[in-house]
């Protein structure tokens, strides 16, 4: 028997669904539909998130998550599918097929069930809820049922982040203080190159949105709280619960970088389109165009050394 719906969760899910349904540029919607077509009817939806969503600038690298009913729907090798079952998501590079301006994206692939499982507060892998407690959009959904399932999964991520913010953040303060404290921990645990100001800058872009999602998340996760006369929030978390959460977070922090390194190692063998991605990056930063041959696409590891050596000799990589 399926679990009964939680009425306290409904407002959070509704808020997330409305955010995901926000209009997106036609080029982004078309690109998401192209990606969905690669998986046929097995693609439930395509999430759009990251810096391009926040800034509206699409000339860099877009970030998409393709969510499948089953990993078998995606055209990839048996080895890549097995890797995705063991350590999701797989990541690919893709370019839009439409007229200029051409769009480029980093595309993560996993199933809806995997996404929902990794979005929970109990997940040892913090990657999903760390990213999707932040603003996201759904430029492609197969149907209303798929859109609802994805909204529910993303709401799980927001609720998970809010739960951790209550247990790891200050005892009282403005909503931004809870989110900033949480992002400082999550960014420090991953392999990232962003500056120390990055966590606060994320919240500063949409302070009202983060404040609303925090209290909705607390309500959904059963975290009691009070709003004080000065507007400060006070989650009612017992000291022993804070101590237990701190120990649980320490275990996740120790695991985070090894998981990142394992995904990078997997990507060496499963990152489809990686040669085109590297060629685009070099051209974007150096102005030096690289023509990728069919042989280089088939044998990226074998070709990398000679290509990089020629670029270094020409001064492109100095």
What does this structure look like?
There is one protein chain. A 5-stranded mixed beta sheet has the order 3-4-2-1-5, sandwiched between helices. It contains 14 helices and 7 strands. The protein is an alpha+beta fold and 318 residues long. The protein has 2 domains: 21-270, Beta Polymerase, domain 2 (2-Layer Sandwich), CATH 3.30.460.10; 274-313, no CATH class. The longest helix has 32 residues, at 239-270. A hairpin with a 5-residue loop joins strand 6 and strand 7. The mean pLDDT is 86. The radius of gyration is 21 Å and the shape is globular.
Distance between the termini: 62 Å
Order of helices and strands: HHEHEHEEHHEHHHHEEHHHH
Number of domains: 2
Helix content: 55-70%
Q: Which secondary-structure class do the elements indicate? A: alpha+beta
Number of helices: 14
Give the strand line-up of the largest sheet.
3-4-2-1-5
Q: What fraction of the residues are assigned to beta strands by DSSP? A: 5-15%
Might you state the CATH topology name of the largest domain? Beta Polymerase, domain 2
Shape category: globular
List keywords for this structure.
alpha+beta, single chain, 56% helix, 7 strands, 318 residues, five-stranded mixed β-sheet, 13% strand, Beta Polymerase, domain 2, two-stranded antiparallel ribbon
Short description:
This protein is of the alpha+beta class. It has 14 helices and seven strands.
Summarize the helices and strands and which ones pair or pack.
Layout lengths: L9 H11 L5 H13 L4 E7 L1 H5 L5 E8 L9 H9 L3 E6 L8 E8 H7 L8 H6 L3 E6 L2 H25 L6 H15 L8 H8 L1 H15 L3 E3 L5 E3 L3 H32 L3 H13 L7 H5 L1 H14 L5
Parallel strand pairs: 2-4
Antiparallel strand pairs: 1-2, 1-5, 3-4, 6-7
């Amino acid at each position: 028997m399926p679990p009964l719906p939680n009425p306290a969760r409904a407002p959070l899910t509704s808020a997330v669904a409305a955010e995901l349904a926000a209009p997106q540029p036609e080029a982004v919607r078309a690109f998401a539909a192209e990606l969905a077509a690669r998986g046929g009817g097995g693609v439930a939806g395509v999430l759009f998130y990251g810096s391009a969503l926040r800034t509206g600038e699409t000339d860099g690298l877009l970030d998409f998550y393709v969510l499948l009913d089953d990993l078998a729907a995606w055209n990839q090798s048996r080895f890549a599918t097995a890797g995705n079952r063991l350590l999701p998501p797989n990541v690919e590079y893709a370019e839009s097929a439409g007229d200029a301006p051409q769009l480029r994206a980093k595309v993560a692939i996993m199933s809806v069930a995997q996404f929902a499982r990794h979005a929970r507060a109990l997940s040892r892998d913090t990657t999903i809820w760390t990213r999707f407690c932040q603003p996201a959009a759904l430029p492609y959904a197969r149907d209303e049922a798929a859109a609802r399932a994805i909204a529910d999964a993303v709401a799980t991520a927001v609720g998970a982040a809010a739960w951790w913010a209550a247990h790891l953040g200050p005892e009282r303060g403005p909503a931004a203080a809870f989110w900033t404290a949480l992002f400082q921990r999550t960014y420090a645990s991953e392999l990232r190159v962003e500056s120390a100001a990055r966590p606060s800058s994320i919240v500063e872009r949409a302070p009202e949105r983060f404040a609303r999602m925090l209290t909705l998340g607390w309500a959904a996760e059963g975290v009691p709280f009070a709003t004080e006369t000065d507007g400060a929030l006070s989650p009612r978390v017992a000291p022993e619960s804070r101590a237990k959460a701190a120990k649980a977070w320490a275990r996740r922090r120790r695991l985070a970088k090894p998981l990142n390194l394992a995904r990078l190692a997997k990507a060496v063998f499963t990152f489809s389109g990686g040669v085109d991605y590297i060629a685009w990056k070099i051209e974007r930063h150096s102005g030096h165009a690289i023509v990728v041959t069919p042989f280089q696409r088939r044998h990226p590891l074998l070709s990398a050394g000679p290509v990089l050596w020629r670029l270094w000799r020409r001064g492109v990589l100095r």
